[in-house]
Design brief:
Elements lengths: L10 H8 L6 H14 L20 H12 L5 H11 L11 H10 L17 H25 L1
Length: 150
C-alpha cells in the first residue's frame, strides 16, 4: 500500500502532515527506500563522532621498545620518524600521533629518562685513551704508593 509513491501525495496524508500527526513525505520516501534496500527500517545506532584509535601493536611495539632501550632520551618526534621510516615506501601508513606513542610507552611501562651519566663524548678517541690509561696505569700508581709507604 505505502510502497506506491503516488499514494503518499494524497490530500488526507498532506493534512495529517500539516497537523504533525504523520511524518513528512520525504521521511516516508527515505524509510521506504531503506526498507527496499536493507529489508528493515531500524534506526542507526549512534556511535559518536570520535576517531578510531590506531594502537601500536606487533612489530612496531617491539621496535619502539628496542629504540627506547637504545636511545632513552629520544624525543617523541624522533621515535615517530624512526617508526615511519621502518615501513616500506610503497605501503606507508600515515605517521603515528604523539598520543599513540605515549600510550604505547605507558603500555610497555617505559618512562622518560631525565638525566644520564654517559655522554656522547665518552667514546671520542682521546677519552678512550684516557680511560685506558686510568684503568691500566692505576695498578702501577698503587704499586708506587705502596713502595713509598714502606
Amino acid at each position: 500500500m505505502w510502497l506506491n509513491r503516488h499514494e503518499l501525495n494524497s490530500p488526507v496524508l498532506n493534512q495529517f502532515c500539516q497537523q504533525k500527526k504523520f511524518p513528512c513525505i520525504k521521511t516516508c520516501q527515505n524509510r521506504i527506500a531503506k526498507y527496499t534496500s536493507l529489508g528493515h527500517t531500524h534506526p542507526k545506532r549512534a556511535t559518536g563522532n570520535g576517531q578510531a584509535k590506531r594502537e601500536l601493536c606487533g612489530g612496531n611495539l617491539k621496535q619502539l621498545a628496542v629504540y627506547c632501550a637504545v636511545f632513552p632520551k629520544a624525543t617523541t618526534d624522533e621515535i615517530r620518524a624512526y617508526l615511519f621510516n621502518l615501513q616500506p615506501a610503497n605501503n606507508q601508513p600515515p605517521p603515528l600521533l604523539h598520543s599513540q606513542i605515549i600510550c604505547a610507552e605507558q603500555l610497555l611501562q617505559l618512562s622518560r629518562k631525565v638525566g644520564s651519566t654517559t655522554c656522547s663524548r665518552a667514546y671520542l678517541p682521546i677519552n678512550l685513551t684516557k680511560r685506558e690509561m686510568y684503568f691500566t696505569w692505576g695498578s702501577l700508581l698503587e704499586l708506587q704508593t705502596q713502595q713509598l709507604q714502606i
